[in-house]
Amino acid sequence: MRSPLRAPRLTERQENPARIEAFSDGVFSVAITLLVIDIHVPSFPHAPTNLEMWVALRDIGSKLLIFAVSFVTIGFFWIGHHLIFWSIERSNRILMWSNLLFLFPIVCLPAATALVGEYPSNGTAATVYVAIVLAAALLLDIVWWYASSNGLVSSEMARENVRSQHRRLIVVTLILLVAACIAPIFPRFAIGAMLVAILCIIATTGSRMLVD
Amino acid sequence: MRSPLRAPRLTERQENPARIEAFSDGVFSVAITLLVIDIHVPSFPHAPTNLEMWVALRDIGSKLLIFAVSFVTIGFFWIGHHLIFWSIERSNRILMWSNLLFLFPIVCLPAATALVGEYPSNGTAATVYVAIVLAAALLLDIVWWYASSNGLVSSEMARENVRSQHRRLIVVTLILLVAACIAPIFPRFAIGAMLVAILCIIATTGSRMLVD
Amino acid sequence: MRSPLRAPRLTERQENPARIEAFSDGVFSVAITLLVIDIHVPSFPHAPTNLEMWVALRDIGSKLLIFAVSFVTIGFFWIGHHLIFWSIERSNRILMWSNLLFLFPIVCLPAATALVGEYPSNGTAATVYVAIVLAAALLLDIVWWYASSNGLVSSEMARENVRSQHRRLIVVTLILLVAACIAPIFPRFAIGAMLVAILCIIATTGSRMLVD
Amino acid sequence: MRSPLRAPRLTERQENPARIEAFSDGVFSVAITLLVIDIHVPSFPHAPTNLEMWVALRDIGSKLLIFAVSFVTIGFFWIGHHLIFWSIERSNRILMWSNLLFLFPIVCLPAATALVGEYPSNGTAATVYVAIVLAAALLLDIVWWYASSNGLVSSEMARENVRSQHRRLIVVTLILLVAACIAPIFPRFAIGAMLVAILCIIATTGSRMLVD
Questions:
Q1: How far apart are CA D21 and CA D211, in angstroms?
Q2: Which of C20, C25, C201, C208 should we substitute to test contact with D (largest number of D Cβ atoms within 10 Å)?
Q3: What is the pTM of this model?
Q4: What is this model's ipTM?
Q5: Measured between CB atoms, which of A35, A89, A211 is closest to B11?
């Protein structure tokens, strides 16, 4: 029980961020699946014809659109989180709390999606939505900044490579900041700009891995 | 920290698709459990007798039926996903995004199930439902095609065996395409054909593993 | 790529039931958390006093009670599933499908819980509830029977020990069968008997592990 | 099959609390994401202006506040659970059931959050909320007490270190007991005191790990 062989094993389990990843994966997967919960079945006064159903479904098109945007956004953050935790080899409580804080806007996103889906042309709804995405980008940046400046990252080599990830996060953050500012006046344009920024980041990073 | 022994360890973690599997498992399990969320408790003007409750439950029978069909469908895709990722040994961002795209129709299935459950004889509802299942089959095929043609699959031997999985996916895709075409006119028949196709695939593959 | 050293590694991953466990854990955890979703906040015509709130919460007491019963029931099946998969070392598609079938009544349980919570004295509701629990017990038994009679279980020694698990499952199944028969006439008694049977099984097995 | 080399492997899997952690992570992540489900989109008689939307969102501010408090509380218990299971190396059925019991108040928290969000100034709602958090703290304490006094913890060294975790849990429990007593009269103050206590614990423990 007290053998020196046991002790490092415990330390290894302690430092392992595997459970942070498992918990985060759980939150991401529930949040991404809950997006759809707000898409209610349309109701009709009588049995609808095929055409009436098409019209009703087309009317909830804006909800489906913002739902798809949120799906891509959560997917983007999941992959960003994935990339960052690839190079994190040790965890501590501050990392856990930073990670939990980052998950807060992710958990809020289904409610914000429902809000924008209901009022797609409302400036306040779009501002709240973009602000939540902005908060997620900022907090993921903080998670990475904390981990890399406190020796939790595996090697200098990896840090060098992840620095480009950091740079990408800052670019996203700046674009989101601008989008949040114009959202009260041009709600649709702000959400579109947010999506374009995310898609650009995705396209430019391609299939490259952390350690090329 | 800079030791060459550390670096491959990171690369190994990077290439490991374990977290894609964990995230996908999360999405599958939430989606399969959310199917039931649309089955609301029947309401009565007074305390119902046993017989009245039976009648009320029988009336929501079509919902239970399509719920069971969706359960089998999600189970089918989960097992297909499982089989494909068994032979995938490395991941990259394109694989992650293809996998996320594949999860999009899976996440949409609970809402489509609710739609068909509410309007079981509506052609548009059935078409949307079959189209979503078709999209899932196509996208899973793309995930497999990308992984196998970009060297992410573990060995030639495994690829040989998984080729039959690919063939099965194409057969399902074709049947679903036909089902989607007839769905606007024969909604119940189209969903039935979809289910029969899935059950045939399940029955013919039996308990065989990838490497027989 | 074709090295003989790779091949067993793939086979090992294939035979590993770890992802079945992960998916099942996901379904169990979503189902057990969704139980609570039917407990709606009571509404009042005006700001309620402390006493009025107590009365309102006491009125939804039957919902809380059946929710607690379902929590214990899902916990019971999770632990049973856990014990069985401890000794399963290999998986195949039939095991996957048996496991999926077993998860079907688990996924139905939140809806059945809401039904009994709404109509606690209705015989049909109680029969449906007990029948779903009975189906789960039967199907878990089938999973175990299939695994143990097809060489998927780790060792004879373990099988000897898990035989007692099998016997316990049969006892539960029989008690549930009786409970399902009396449920139409004595709904509360049937659910009570079900709970007592589960608690007895829990109490008699104590903290013993599979391999004592 | 009967080789002595296999047997310890099974025992190792049996004693491994990894699946308890996976199931608990699932419950925690579903519960923390379901918190948001009660935040409904405000409805308006006509298309709202930006200002009207701000006013409507500010009105649901108390819901957002208690949602944030519950988010921190569930995060606190997740990290506490994480720290405790770091040093638990073996599991048995009593540990599993204690852990399930601990998850019961966690699962109840979204419903209690909705209750306090709807009636933030009601004493009974606040009492129920604080009592549920108190139950979680007590039951996590019992999980730790059982594990440490039954040889499931990895080493004396770790126990020494986790003793401070135990002490912290008792302090939280006592503060929550006081908060539960004053909640019927000062509901907002009781929940505030609960939050302050949790934040103090978080601040004083900092980034220290179990084995310093």
A1: 20
A2: C25
A3: 0.88
A4: 0.84
A5: A211
